[in-house]
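Quick one, tokens below:
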């Protein structure tokens, strides 16, 4: 297993003063990156929706790809993830310094510029997402049951 490098999405507006509170201002993804995302986003059973304001791809309730600022990210299993990192000189996705994601990689520019290659990796991410245990709204509601409604007394 090779060395894992981490990709840190940073904003130029990040205040790094020691005593100052850290305020991160996220930037919107460019329209070009959004268009590329939409062009490689698979059809059903995959579904596109927003995650933290950015476009993301889901299958069975599991996110398998998405955008974050000017980065496209893919969720890959261990073997293909290591291959992607080595072959494409890619990095583990880290949305905030010191907070790496376990299964997501940041797609480097050369892969973004090769739509055929990108689509092949998106297909691998979709396959992995589809292999994961489905998430359902019913499972979420059992974890956080709704509070009973209070009735007014007359």
């Amino acid at each position: 297993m090779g060395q894992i490098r981490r990709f840190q999405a940073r904003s130029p507006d990040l205040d790094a003063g020691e005593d100052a509170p850290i305020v991160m201002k996220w930037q919107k993804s460019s329209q070009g990156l959004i268009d590329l995302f939409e062009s490689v986003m698979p059809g059903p059973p995959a579904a596109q929706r927003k995650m933290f304001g950015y476009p993301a791809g889901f299958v069975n309730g599991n996110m398998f790809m998405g955008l974050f600022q000017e980065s496209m990210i893919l969720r890959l299993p261990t073997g293909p993830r290591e291959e992607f990192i080595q072959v494409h000189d890619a990095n583990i996705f880290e949305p905030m310094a010191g907070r790496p994601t376990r299964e997501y990689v940041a797609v480097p520019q050369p892969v973004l510029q090769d739509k055929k290659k990108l689509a092949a990796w998106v297909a691998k991410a979709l396959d992995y997402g589809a292999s994961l245990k489905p998430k359902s709204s019913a499972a979420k509601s059992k974890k956080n049951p709704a509070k009973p409604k209070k009735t007014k007394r007359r």
